Amino acid sequence: MRSLAEAWVAGVPVEWGALFAGSGAVRVDLPTYAFDHQRYWPKPTEATKATTTADPVDAALWELIDGDQDRMAAALDLDGDTAALVAPALSAWRERRRARATVDSWRYGDSWAPLSEPETAEPAGRWLVVVPRGWKDDPWLRSVVAELGEELTLAEAPAPDRAALAESFAAYAGEDFAGVLSLAAFAQEEGEHPATDVPQGLALSLTVVQALTDAEVTGRVWWATRGAVSIGGNDRVIEPGLAVLWGMGRVAALEMPARWGGLLDLPVEFDARAGQRLRAVLYGESGEDQVAVRSSGVFGRRLVRLPVGVVKRPGGWVPSGTVLITGGTGGLGG
């Protein structure tokens, strides 16, 4: 029998029916594997009934509220009608607080944390700086380029033409760039009526990254904006049109992790101090990839929990002068 089994395992056909004919043998199902039913998934902790169980007084109070109303009325020296109104109201309030606490745990928002003042750093190699057409006519762009130092190569990106840019960038394929800073976000719209709704700066910035990859130009790419984010307080968004690059930049970071360097928002008043901080962020090794440089320091973007808080109901609108109302002469206004 063992030899037949070894032959069967080796692929030799065996007439098992003839072998067991007249023996009364029947086919049976093999037992399944004895799986261990022990679970290894983490068990969620059960929410406590009271909002604060550490305080025995609070625990006793909520025990009264959740218990018999007559007992609560006697303990709190209330009449029965008052207890019948108070107990459900307090229980409903606590349930609302629990629900809001649950929603709070789902909500997140942006926050900007001050970073330690970066030390002055020297570039590990030559940097490629991509500038838009006509950048020399912009004093702000000229000052940014001037503060980057001498170890850089300037490349002009005139238009969001991927093939043309890749052909232009091919001249730098042999260079071993330490990084790439794109100032293409500041490209001006061509003509009074752009051919597309996509902002010129966004289209050019994205095309620059694609063309650099096509031309096999090395170096992680940083996008620079100006006044596109607010770090809070009195810091306002000066150029909201550039904020779209921060949304696209985060997508690019996920799609091209080996190509991406980071996002950098610069101040409107760009002086030597800002230039020093810019060089420290680009040439240093802070590990930050979403940075805002301000006159008060350098800030890194953080994802923090965002409680719902108290909902503020908007007040009525109080006009400050004559108001013209149009479009209300039809079925809605008539």
Automatic annotation (TrEMBL):
InterPro entries: NAD(P)-bd_dom_sf, PKS_DE. Pfam families: PKS_DE (PF18369). Residues 58-100 form the Polyketide synthase dimerisation element domain. This is Polyketide synthase. It comes from Streptomyces hoynatensis.
